[in-house]
Amino acid sequence: MEQNNDGSLTQVRHVVLVLSGKGGVGKSTITTELALALRHAGKRVGILDVDLCGPSIPRMLSVGRPDVHQCDSGWVPVYTDAQKSLALMSIGFLLEDPDEAVVWRGPKKTAMISQFVSDVAWGELDVLLVDTPPGTSDEHLAVLENLKKHRVDGAVLVTTPQAVSTGDVRREITFCKKTGVRILGIIENMSGFACPHCSECSNIFSKGGGEELAKLTGSVFLGSVPLDPLLGSSIEQGKDFIESFPDSATFSAINSISQTLLESLQT
User: What burial class does residue 164 get, using C-beta atoms within 10 Å of its C-beta: 0-12 exposed, 13-18 middle, 19+ buried?
Assistant: First the structure.
């Protein structure tokens, strides 16, 4: 593995950005479920939550607001399990009041992101997932500039099926091409409604927008994840959906996406 001066990332094998063109597409949910699926596949995973205005992943993983400690090589991430196979660092840990709004100008945001990227002692990880804010703002550029000192394997783009969402993701694809980030694939979230009482999946939105976008842009389509009330309640309660509902179609979809992502990281 390539070595550099950035002590916090030298033992991280793969770095993957999770991007979306707009808010509300379930990007943090997808990041959390991908991390859990990779952990269940025996990988050591980290999540860097740099969505400064909406740090929701600590709640999704039920870690609360622990004190963040420092060691010689930087901030120690918060581990979600005794085996230390899933590590998390989030701006949510550093706010004095969980209801506090992050009203910061660009330079302060980029300085915070720079510190997050360079000063977390991740140790040995197979995959670091970076949950970014929606859009293509200066925060994204700050993340990229700091991570590129190490290496970014690529980005996963999250969309919902509607044309409005896929249109926003097109801009995200343009952003990736302009900044030289490899697109690892597109995930269509909220792709139909999985009824909790029967196995039927109803298309309450449209369907296939993510797959069509992947074809049009020559990107890999990683798969679809339905809108599933069981997944929603697991996220709300901070439970491991993959452990709780291993027989569900949604589990199968997330697992398949994580396996395809792993394969593309190894090529």
Answer: exposed
Give the pair of three-digit tokens for residue 97. 């009041």
Is the pLDDT reported for residue 154 higher than 90? yes
Q: Indicate if the pLDDT at residue 203 is higher than 90.
A: no
Q: How many domains does the chain have?
A: 1
Could you read off the pLDDT of 242-251 as tens digits, one per residue?
Answer: 888 888 888 8
Find out whether 167 is annotated in a ligand binding site.
no
Q: Is 83 exposed, middle or buried (0-12, 13-18, 19+ CB in 10 A)?
A: exposed
Output the pLDDT for position 100: 64
Q: Please report the pLDDT score of residue 126 as a whole number.
A: 96
Annotated binding residue 239:
no
The verdict on whether residue 21 carries a ligand-binding annotation is: yes
* 27 carries a ligand binding annotation: yes
- 149 annotated as ligand-binding: no
User: Is 108 one of the annotated binding-site residues?
Assistant: no
- Helix (H) / strand (E) element for 161: namely none
DSSP 193-224: EE-SSSS-EE-SS---HHHHHHHHHT--EEEE
Task: Select from 73, 21, 25, 64 the least CA-distant residue to 189.
Answer: 25
180 is in an annotated binding site: no
Question: What is the spatial distance between Cα 157 and Cα 184, in angstroms, rounded to a whole number?
Answer: 8
Q: Is 22 annotated as contributing to ligand binding?
A: yes
How far is 260 from 221, CA to CA, in rounded Å?
Answer: 10
Domain containing residue 205: CATH number? 3.40.50.300
The answer to whether residue 61 sits within a structural domain is yes
